[in-house]
Amino acid sequence: MTAPSERLQGTVDVLILKTLAWKPMHGYAIAKFLADTSRGELTVEGAALYQGLHRLERKGLIRSRWGTSDTKRRVRIYDLTPKGRAQLVAEADGWKRHAAAVARVLAVRDAHA
Amino acid sequence: MREPIIPTRSREQIAADNRAELDGWIEERAADFAAGGMAPEAARRRALKEFGDADGATQYGARQDVAGDRRLRVRFWIEELGSDLRIAARTLARTPTVTAVVLLTFAVGVGSTTAVFSIVHAMFLRRLPYGAEQTLVYLPAADNGVIRPGLGGGRHSAAALVALRERTRSFSGIAGAEQGNIILTVNGEPEQVTAVALTPDGFDVLQARAAIGRTFGAREESGPASQVVVLLDGLWRRRFGGDSGAVGRTIESSEGPVGIIGVMPPGFRVPTYEQAEVLMPRDLAPLLRNANNSQIRFLRLFARLKPGVSGETARGDVDRAMGTLRTDFPRSFAGIDTRVMPIRTAVVGDAKPRLLILMGAAGFVLLIACANVAGILLSRAIARRHELSVRVALGAGRGRLIRQFLAEGAVLAALGAGLGLLVAQLGIGVLRHTATAALPAGTTFALEPLVAFFAVGASVATAVASALVPALGATRALGVALRTDDGRVSPSHTNRRMRLGLVAGQLTVSVVLLVGAGLLLRTLQRLSSLDLGYTTEQALTFRLQFTRPHSPAEQDAFWASLYEQLRGIPGVLTVGGGNIPTSGQSTVTGLAIEGRPAENGRLPDVRYTPASDDYFAALGIPIVRGRTFTAGDQDGAPPVAVISAGLAQQLWPGGGAIGARVRPDPGKAWSTVVGVVGDVRMGAADAPQPSIYTSQRQDRWPGGGAVVIRTVADPEAVSAGIRQVVHRVDPSLPIIGLRTLEEFRRSTPAVAERRLQMQLMLLFAFVALAVSAVGVYGVSAYAMEARRREFGIRLALGAPRRRVLWLALRDGVSVAALGGFVGVPLAVLLASRLRDLLYSVGPFDPLKIGVVLGTLLLVVMAASIVPARRATLIDPAQTMRTE
């Protein structure tokens, strides 16, 4: 019974949604995409990513079908649903505001130092 | 535009998919490592390690997938249901007339069943207000094994009550109750109300407490303290406006001033005396002092079982006690048994079989309506054959099609339930007006929640059942049709047979109902034409009860003056005083005969009433021998009596009744029989009752009396004059129950019950027939449509139109024949089980059955003639062109 913590789940979920907003992808491609775009700063463990995909599909935010990867493998390709797209917009706003707030707090502390 | 149906996956499929997904992932990662120069084995190990908890992840994934799958399934199911319902509603709306007719029959079926069920509910399912129901029993007396019907039935003497209390051990208490009348004067306005005199332990036995104030106890059993009453909720609201200040007031009554000490909670009634509105204490001591009174039976006994004592044990206990009583006091108890009866049986009485029959009849109507709904869905399924086959071709399963039918059923059920409730409400209103005389007094019924629930349940069950028949039938037939269909198809035989079967079933049920209604109609005719022994036409009766005690001299003067003035009203022929036989007011007593010991220690039971000189003339009871009362039969003259012919025959078979001396009341002197008069019947269906009459000027009833007035013409015309006269003689006297003897006769339970039952049965039968006619029409119209081509060809080949007409009618006629063939024996079989409800009518009555079958054939012909006529009007030329 591995239940990833909620904050981690939330982070993984929003990353998956953002990635899939780019284009439909299969699991390993998403992992590679995340590693590449964050220049290696953000590495999500495969298991967590895998769980996130199934969780999001259950929630109806993404859907899947069997397809073929660039390397001609039979893979499960995930895609955003309209509901998932709306969720991404809402969550991304939240994340940006959160990040900006954190940044402001950090900036204030620097001025005093 | 709907999304394609995504096939849902099994658990095994999900697990395999997830394993494949994971394997692909690892493989791809390993391939990347290998491309960087790593050995394949090491690359794979590295990829697995980097991935993390693979087993945990797949398990988690599987759980999510299963949950998601379920959600998907539910969503699709709801979506499909929604679209099914929309399609169903559209389909139904496309044929508004047919839908309206079907809905109407449906609503009548549901409504009538619900209305009758409301009575069933009121009588059998409602909680009785007596604590633990199964521990309260009624102890009726049975004479020679029979509980006598009517008001006198089941009653015990005071001695029996005391003896049972002493000699049984099963009961924590045995209470006695007696019904009587009392006149209460509230705010200067006298009103007669029905009262129950109850032994003070009655409240403990019934486990009843006052809602306001208190009930009476042992110290109020006798003496001045006993001048108290407890009001029932209805009277308290009606006469005291629900004012709790009523408790503590003292009001005038025919029994002297009485104090109101309490009000019972709403819904409380004394079992079997449901009309009573006032409770008073009953003191048995005076009766017990005189052993001669032990044959006067006036009490109904109710008993509470001790904890843990079963009804069976109590029965044995009571039987044993009665056995010892019969040995010890044969004169009082010979031939008398005491039964132990559950309280609900006592309250509901013999209404159960009658109610079950009505419930059955209503259920039959529902069944017929059901068949109509099924029929209409079935023919619609045939009409939609092509649409359905396309759906099947596109992959819709049989389950999907069945659901489509169920959706149509659901729409019909929703509408039908709504309409059915409306019909039920109307029906209950009608029943309230007509049914009260036929039900145990005080039975109230309404569209209560449980009853409404029943209506909805009946609607849903009916709709689902009606939808399933065509759903299973049509989809199976469709499978066959798909393989053989040439596009034009004659309808499959299965479907035609199914529709014909449905209609034949409807007609069978209609026949059963019609025969039943006919039997009840004949019974009612027989009962109404039965000779009661007196003439009910052009006569009125009413009762008077004195509001204060009258001395014998006062009484004589009062009655003489009243009769004199009543005779003076224009249109009045004769005026008599005394109880009319059906009123139930007469006493039943044991008749002592001078010089003859009681047979088996027991005196013969007779109905006993004092009567005025003109009583026999006013009622039209013929004098058989001797004379009736004359002016000389008054106090001081030798007491005289008149007996009925049946009693004379029973006691003096060889003659010699006149001159014999008898004594109906042990406390009084011997009376000489001076005349013999014709027999009268108490109730319409009862045997003639042995009767004894005494002169009203020698033997008076202290409380008041009944008057019979024979009129020249319309009895209603003199009722205003009667009211004026009574008011002139004594303004304080209320007139009780003024009505014609005809009304009286009609309202006697035996007649009223059967009339209601006959009316309802007849109504149900005609509804059933009308609903079946709709079914027949449907079958004919459908057959006609389906065989249009065949008829056209026949006409083109020179068949006479008469022959084609017959072909078109044939289906209808053959189902009618089938309906009659099955229905008549079934009806006779059922009727023979209902002998109790019939009166001098055999279950098999060829004339009536002929009438029923004739009606049936007529209705069937009428329903199928329109489509059949259409068949003969087919233009053969056009048929040939389209071929």
So what's the overall shape of chain B? Answer: globular
Number of helices of chain B: 26
Radius of gyration of chain A: 16 Å
The secondary-structure element order of chain A is: HEHHEEH
Terminal residue distance of chain A = 46 Å
List low-pLDDT spans of chain A.
none
Any overview of this molecule?
- Chain A has a single domain, classed as Orthogonal Bundle (Arc Repressor Mutant, subunit A).
- In chain A, 64% of the residues lie in helices and 14% in strands.
- Chain A has 4 helices and 3 strands, in the order H-E-H-H-E-E-H.
- Chain A has a 3-stranded antiparallel sheet.
- Chain B is an alpha+beta fold and 883 residues long.
- Chain B has 4 domains: 11-94; 140-339, no CATH class; 351-529 and 750-882, no CATH class; 548-733, no CATH class.
- Chain B is 54% helix and 15% strand.
- Chain B contains 26 helices and 27 strands.
- In chain B, helix 24 packs antiparallel against helix 25.
- The A-B interface holds A 1-2, 26-28, 45-48, 50-51, 53-55, 57-60, 69, 71, 73-76 and B 17-18, 20-22, 24-25, 27-29, 31, 50-54, 56-58, 60-62, 64-65, 67-68, 71.
Ordered list of secondary-structure elements with their pairings:
The complex is a heterodimer of chains A (113) and B (883).
Chain A: H1 6-22, E1 25-26, H2 27-37, H3 46-58, E2 62-68, E3 74-80, H4 82-112
Antiparallel strand pairs in A: 1-3, 2-3
Helix pairs in contact in A: 1-3, 1-4
Chain B: H1 11-35, H2 40-51, H3 54-94, H4 96-125, E1 136-138, E2 141-143, E3 156-157, H5 158-167, E4 171-186, E5 189-198, H6 202-206, E6 212-213, E7 228-231, H7 233-240, E8 250-253, E9 258-263, E10 278-281, H8 285-289, E11 297-305, H9 311-328, H10 330-333, E12 336-338, E13 341-342, H11 343-348, H12 351-383, H13 385-393, H14 398-434, H15 449-484, H16 493-529, E14 539-545, H17 552-567, E15 572-577, E16 587-590, E17 592-593, E18 605-611, H18 615-619, E19 623-626, E20 640-644, H19 645-651, E21 661-663, E22 671-677, E23 680-681, E24 688-689, E25 691-695, E26 704-711, H20 719-729, E27 735-740, H21 741-747, H22 749-786, H23 788-796, H24 801-832, H25 846-872, H26 876-882
Parallel strand pairs in B: 5-10, 7-9, 18-25, 20-22
Antiparallel strand pairs in B: 1-11, 1-13, 2-12, 3-11, 4-5, 4-8, 4-11, 6-9, 7-10, 8-9, 14-26, 14-27, 15-26, 16-18, 17-21, 19-22, 20-25, 21-22, 23-24
